From TrEMBL:
Domain of life: Bacteria
GO biological process: cAMP catabolic process
Organism: Caballeronia pedi
Protein name (database record): Ribonuclease Z
GO MF entry, a single one: 3',5'-cyclic-AMP phosphodiesterase activity
Amino acid sequence: MKVRVLGCSGAIGSSPDAAHDPGGTTALLVDDDIMIDAGTGVAVLSDDELARIDHVFLTHSHLDHIAYLPLMIDAVGDARDAPLTVHASRATLDILRAHIFNNLIWPDFTRIPSPDAPGVRFEALEVGECFALNGRVVTALPARHTVPSMGFAVSSGQACLAFSGDTTTNPKFWAAVSALPGLRHVIVETAFPDTQIALAHAAQHYCPRLIADDLSGVGMKAELLISHLKPPYGAQILDELRAALPGVNLRALQAGEVLMLL
Ligand SMILES: [Zn+2]
Ligand SMILES: [Zn+2]
């Protein structure tokens, strides 16, 4: 199993920190058929790559995580003979139905080209639920954000990667992650520097101090890969994380990198 980072930025626009290239907003490609979130990072995929995606797992409904979903469903319709399956919490799916696929912002592709053969089908899943796909297992993990949200773990059977989605203080996530067999990497968001802790609380994101609080007493051996950095603050956030988490193996996640989970 491999995980390709299509985008992992907290915003669009290039970062002034050339050492850190997060690409567009959040999107991860697992092998060639499973996507986790569908932010603007999806723009790097070709038509053929888009058409091979059978399953999209969404952490939540915010635009930076779903922006390319409506467009990709439309783009691959002619090339596919089965609907794309979107997996998310029931609350997130209800939001997508009401506010995106409502025939105003975008057509209701759950009913076109026809209700019997639609472009997309929605499948609800709950935190703690596992979904097996040809030897890979996707597990929904708890998250705490301003809208209903979840993280995901993907496992090959031998090795596992966990992804926090958008979250703030979340001890349940770390407890669940610590119990995952074969855990190699944890992609964790850190949207804000500590100087913006009030904003982190208001927007329900992490800043370094809040991650350090959650990780005290958790023996984290897996590599932490930091995502969702707000571009002007990337280097500052990483410096603060390294100071707050001495001895923890961490670095910024990069767009284009491929994590092998064998
Ligand atoms: Zn969000
Ligand atoms: Zn986000």
